[in-house]
């Protein structure tokens, strides 16, 4: 059972929900896939140890063999290679590591080397939760590669909670395409609703069943609720617009730790999700 | 022409609220909504569309099954796992690298153009605006950001505008890099939370990397004043002027519900809190305008302090 926590946009409380949800349950794993800004551990404070370096291949051109024919630069779809009169120049941050240049080089002058684009870390084994996150190096663009490496560490025998990256582009698809259930965190304001609809579209395109967590409930109006009722989307949980919760968040304290009544609410949410995910697989 | 980008390291900090407020204060300005993944500025500014244009993203491979013999070479060579078992292409995985087209012995694969979104020019009650709509699941958002910025430059030219205000995308990935390169000033918006400080540091690393003059502002400074002081100390150390501290205010949501900027809302609501809030933003904009107009002080890049925080 893999549950992705997502939202159209950052700042809606995705990380808060993922962290508190994971802490409220027994024997689950938490994966922070927001590799551009992994924030979960700011709330968990675990000691982390590196488990894997994520690498990407890039070409290195052997000037002794290269005839400067320019085939490689012509081929590269991402303009990562430029043919200068005396040398072929590589722009590493544009290279997607597709291997095309080495394939098309007629004289075998292209050798592929790997470079690190990010790292996967996990919480040490005495931590109360099995936790992994990935960090994309600053200035690198290939978030999806780090996410895919990260997801390979999921233990399929246990429920996994996955904090998704924001947005509606590739990184989110990499996570949602992999999930059995998607929890969308949103607020009922014009911005919140707009971003929620975008995220919903992604989940629908990938045919992942969806439920909603209403964050800062009480703020704004009922537009998200009305929409969910019309569309038959379950509202799994409401987190009120509460100063205490905001305060704990600002200090980096998961609120289930200070407000034990929330543990039960998250457990109930988990039960609901299990039932709903089961139902939707049963229908298909 | 001078360009300001507003970023935050993460979404949900109030970037759009602030950009919208600036737009109602600044004259002679073009807006560029570069948050192409989830463009929210139009929800407040209600743009009248003048022109839209498709943005072509990465191409997409397509296999002609009449020619394909099922040899499997393409599946083996594709580094992105985009060729499925039945030799169709998974559009979400294909990066359009074209390796399969040259690898296929039967010439059965070709690349098709695909539209990844639209770039839109509009007119709003506060001037021209360039924005975009990214199609679901499309990745070319860096490219779309570039197109929005190019369109903003054209609009600024046509309407003789002095400034371009860029509402930046969240994160520190390639869309953000596309949104800040070549700007004259970056305003980083932060929140006094543990993650807010962390995101601020990541954002500063980026502006330092690109050597762009940077200023900062704290939103909701009063939800945790201790953290606010920490952020202030960090800014001082990094050499970034902290220009304003905005209080936590429900009126930002109220203004949003009315589809107004906080400046407009303050002008008619008579709400004291709103008027105070608007005045802080007014002073902030005045400070920024001075810095934007001043072309001499080019050396106030932030210093990179720690390269990687846990
Ligand atoms: S590996 Fe692919 S993306 Fe990188 S330089 Fe070669 S052709 Fe271009
Ligand atoms: S294809 Fe090979 S020989 Fe030709 S320019 Fe590239 S590296 Fe040199
Ligand atoms: S390489 Fe060409 S012929 Fe072989 S499976 Fe792929 S498309 Fe078909
Ligand atoms: S174009 Fe590249 S990514 Fe797409 S299917 Fe072909 S080899 Fe794979």
From TrEMBL, chain A:
Residues 57-86, 87-115 form the 4Fe-4S ferredoxin-type domain. GO terms for molecular function: oxidoreductase activity. PANTHER family: 4FE-4S CLUSTER CONTAINING PARA FAMILY ATPASE PROTEIN. CDD domains: SIMIBI_bact_arch. This is 4Fe-4S ferredoxin-type domain-containing protein. InterPro entries: 4Fe4S_Fe-S-bd, 4Fe4S_Fe_S_CS, CobQ/CobB/MinD/ParA_Nub-bd_dom, P-loop_NTPase. It comes from the Archaea. PROSITE patterns: 4FE4S_FER_1 (PS00198), 4FE4S_FER_2 (PS51379). Pfam families: CbiA, Fer4. It comes from Methanosarcina lacustris Z-7289.
From TrEMBL, chain B:
It comes from the Archaea. CDD domains: SIMIBI_bact_arch. Gene3D superfamilies: 3.30.70.20, P-loop containing nucleotide triphosphate hydrolases. PROSITE patterns: 4FE4S_FER_1, 4FE4S_FER_2. Pfam families: CbiA (PF01656), Fer4 (PF00037). One of its GO terms (molecular function) is oxidoreductase activity. Residues 59-83, 85-114 form the 4Fe-4S ferredoxin-type domain. This is Heterodisulfide reductase subunit A-like protein.
């Amino acid at each position: 059972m893999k549950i992705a926590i997502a939202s159209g946009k950052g700042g809606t409380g995705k990380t808060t929900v993922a962290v508190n949800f994971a802490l409220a349950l027994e024997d689950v794993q938490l994966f922070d896939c927001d590799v551009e800004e992994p924030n979960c551990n700011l709330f968990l404070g675990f000691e982390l140890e590196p488990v894997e370096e994520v690498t990407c291949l890039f070409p290195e051109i052997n000037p002794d063999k290269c005839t400067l024919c320019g085939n490689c630069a012509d081929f590269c779809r991402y303009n990562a290679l430029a043919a200068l009169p005396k040398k072929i120049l590589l722009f590493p941050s544009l290279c997607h590591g597709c291997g095309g240049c080495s394939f098309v080089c007629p004289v075998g002058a292209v050798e592929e080397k790997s470079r690190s684009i990010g790292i996967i870390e996990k919480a040490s084994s005495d931590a109360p939760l099995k936790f992994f996150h990935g960090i994309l190096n600053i200035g690198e663009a290939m978030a999806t590669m780090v996410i895919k490496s990260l997801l390979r560490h999921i233990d399929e025998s246990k429920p996994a909670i996955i904090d998704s990256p924001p947005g509606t582009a590739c990184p989110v698809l990499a996570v949602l395409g992999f999930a059995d259930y998607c929890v969308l965190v949103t607020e009922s304001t014009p911005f919140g609703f707009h971003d929620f609809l975008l995220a919903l579209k992604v989940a629908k395109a990938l045919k992942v069943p969806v439920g909603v967590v209403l964050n800062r409930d009480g703020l704004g109006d009922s537009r998200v609720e009305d929409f969910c009722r019309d569309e038959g989307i379950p509202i799994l949980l409401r987190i009120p617009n509460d100063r205490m919760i905001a305060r704990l968040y600002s200090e980096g304290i998961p609120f289930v730790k200070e407000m034990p009544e929330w543990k039960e609410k998250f457990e109930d949410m988990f039960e609901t999700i299990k039932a709903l995910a089961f139902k939707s697989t049963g229908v298909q | 022409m001078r360009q300001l980008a507003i970023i935050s390291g993460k979404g949900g900090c109030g970037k759009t609220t602030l950009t919208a407020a600036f737009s109602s204060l600044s004259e002679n300005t073009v807006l560029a909504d570069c948050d192409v993944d989830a463009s929210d500025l139009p929800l407040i500014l209600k743009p009248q569309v003048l022109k839209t244009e498709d943005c072509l993203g990465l191409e997409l491979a397509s296999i002609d099954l009449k020619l394909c013999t099922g040899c499997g070479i393409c599946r083996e060579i594709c580094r992105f796992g985009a060729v499925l078992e039945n030799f169709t292409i998974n559009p979400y995985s294909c990066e359009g690298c074209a390796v399969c087209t040259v690898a296929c012995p039967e010439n059965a694969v070709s690349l098709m153009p695909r539209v990844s979104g639209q770039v839109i020019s509009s007119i709003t009650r506060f001037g021209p605006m360039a924005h975009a709509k990214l199609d679901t699941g499309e990745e070319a958002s860096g490219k779309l950001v570039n197109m929005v910025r190019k369109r903003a430059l054209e609009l600024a030219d046509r309407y003789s505008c002095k400034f371009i205000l860029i509402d930046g995308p969240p994160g520190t990935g390639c869309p953000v890099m596309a949104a800040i390169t070549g700007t004259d000033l970056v305003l980083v918006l932060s929140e006094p939370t543990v993650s807010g400080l962390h995101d601020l540091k990541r954002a500063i690393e980026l502006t330092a990397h690109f050597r762009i003059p940077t200023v900062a502002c704290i939103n909701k400074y009063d939800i945790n004043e201790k953290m606010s002081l920490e952020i202030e100390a960090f800014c001082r150390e990094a050499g970034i002027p902290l220009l304003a501290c905005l209080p936590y205010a429900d009126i930002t949501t109220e203004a949003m519900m009315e589809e107004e900027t906080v400046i407009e809302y303050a002008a008619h609501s008579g709400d004291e809190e709103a008027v105070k809030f608007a005045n802080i933003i007014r002073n902030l904009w005045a400070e920024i305008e001075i810095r934007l107009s001043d072309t001499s002080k080019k050396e106030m890049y932030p210093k990179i302090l720690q390269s990687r925080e846990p």
